[in-house]
């Protein structure tokens, strides 16, 4: 076997193992995340169609609503700016949705400047500090929770986590898990350098 072939086989094996380990981390964390009673609930933003929350965002909001109604937090921070094709910020769409479900608007804190998960968490931490909150339940899709947890830790957020799996959009969820593997590597590389 030539040296070049050995190198290719070795590299392929290492890459395959790395993908498996990262995928396992993502799945294990998302499946085992358990919320804890906290000062607030942070619902991370997702696509809005005009003014209407996407199905993924609706599921996140419904989870945040259920946690709020079960006493896991006294306030909800809705986090997300205005992206391409969105007529209002994700935070505004999220607040409108929650108010339509009966939540007092004064219990909803809007963070409407963020364009990424890291920005969501940086800005949500600022909102927490302003309100004197010490802990949060962070809500997102299950595949997103591991990376979100690393980012939350980097911002010194004392967080627990609660994830959703949108069964009616199984293909998109699976795509999310696949995309999350390189996203995790990118996060680790950025942290390293």
TrEMBL record:
Pfam families: DUF218
Record keyword rRNA-binding present: no
Signal peptide positions (record): none
InterPro entries in the record: Cell_Envelope_Assoc (IPR051599), DUF218 (IPR003848), Rossmann-like_a/b/a_fold (IPR014729)
Highest taxon of source: Bacteria
Annotated keywords: Membrane, Transmembrane, Transmembrane helix
Bilayer-crossing regions: 7-30
Domain DUF218: from-to ranges: 39-157
Keyword Transcription regulation: no
Name of the molecule in the record: YdcF family protein
Organism expressing this protein natively: Clostridium moutaii
């Amino acid at each position: 076997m030539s040296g070049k072939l050995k190198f290719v086989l070795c590299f392929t094996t290492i890459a395959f193992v790395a993908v498996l380990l990262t995928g396992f981390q993502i799945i294990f964390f998302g499946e085992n995340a358990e919320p804890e009673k906290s000062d607030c609930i942070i619902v991370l933003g997702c696509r809005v169609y005009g003014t209407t929350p996407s199905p993924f965002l609706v599921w996140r909001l419904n989870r945040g609503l259920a946690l709020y109604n079960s006493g896991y937090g006294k306030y909800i921070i809705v986090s997300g700016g205005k992206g391409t094709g969105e007529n209002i910020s994700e935070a505004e769409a999220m607040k409108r949705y929650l108010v339509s479900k009966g939540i007092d608007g004064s219990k909803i804190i809007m963070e409407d400047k963020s364009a990424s998960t890291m920005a969501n968490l940086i800005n949500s931490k600022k909102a927490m500090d302003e309100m004197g909150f010490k802990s949060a339940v962070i809500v997102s899709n299950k595949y997103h929770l591991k990376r979100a947890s690393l980012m939350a830790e980097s911002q010194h957020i004392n967080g627990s986590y609660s994830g959703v799996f949108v069964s009616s959009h199984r293909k998109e969820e699976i795509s999310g898990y696949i995309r999350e593997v390189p996203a995790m590597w990118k996060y680790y590389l950025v942290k390293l350098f």
